[in-house]
Amino acid sequence: MILAINTSTLQFSLALLSRKGGIVAEHLMSEERGHFGRLMPTLDFLLTSSGRKIQETVCIAVATGPGSFTGLRIGISLAKGLCHALRVPIIGISSLEAMAIQAPNLGVPVIPLLYSRKNEAFMARFVWGAGGRLQREQEDAWIQFRDIPRLFPGPALFVGNDYPNQGAQLRDLMGEQALLGPLHAWCLRASAVGSLALERYRMGDTDDPHFLNPVYLRPPDIRPNPYAGK
Q1: Rounded CA gap, 84 and 90, in Å?
Q2: d(CA 102, CA 128)
Q3: I want to staple 166 with a disulfide (CB 3.0 to 4.6 A). Which of 85, 89, 138, 160 is the partner?
Q4: pLDDT for res 230
């Protein structure tokens, strides 16, 4: 089975997928203070409730960002530790790409958004191509929310990680040009990370754990104290 991990958003998620593509089990944790401390108990719950053993894992999939700085470090560290302990390959997946595949095909560009900090967001642009495959048209970027109408002047389908706030802002900025994905698509699920990783695993396309690092795109809010040690 594939063990998929998403901690790039504050709503963390874990999923177990069979090598045939079915979702064995999935757990989504809503945003709460200190909730990343529940990561290992949640993994144990998934394994126990599904009757699976961690030794059945053949690959670890993990969302590499962009997203929460703390969450990314926790998730990727866990993925690397399990990869080493179980001696299985690891595959890193863009958080924005995983979010985009949760959106329906409406014949317009798909724009996944993840909050960076106040009035800023991480985003990318995808389209559904021939054969129902998602194709990237723009690399992950860090933008000001107010710039979205300029970057996407036509109709676009948006999915994000905060439906009430992001949806309202998009409607204010773009009116009817902003198509909002269904509510269930507005939370990055580990099963979406796992499904993208499963495609790569079948092709033998895995990552070197030594070079798999978080994708931040912007500097952290907390900077080193320039006067420390003086």
Answers
A1: 9
A2: 12
A3: 160
A4: 45
Helix (H, G, I), strand (E, B) or coil at 207: strand
**Which secondary structure element, helix H or strand E, spans residue 49, and what is its range?**
helix 39-50
Q: What would the mean pLDDT of 95-118 be, rounded to a whole number?
A: 92
- Please answer whether residues 64 and 73 qualify as being in contact, where contact means their C-beta atoms are separated by less than 8 angstroms: no
Structure tokens at 107: 């014949």
d(CA 61, CA 98): 11
Alpha-carbon gap, residue 119 to 35, rounded angstroms: 24
Burial of 108 per CB tally in 10 Å (0-12, 13-18, 19+): middle
| pLDDT on residue 226 | 46
How confident is the prediction for the chain on average, in pLDDT?
91
For residues 63-69, average pLDDT: 93
Rounded to whole angstroms, the Cα distance separating 159 from 155 reads 13
Q: What residues contact 220, with CB distance under 8 A and at least 6 apart?
A: 69
Q: How many CA atoms lie within 13 A of 40 on its CB side?
A: 6
Question: Is the pLDDT reported for residue 50 higher than 90?
Answer: yes
Structure tokens at 125: 């642009």
Cα–Cα dist 147/122, whole Å:
12
What is the rounded CA–CA span in Å between residue 56 and residue 51?
11
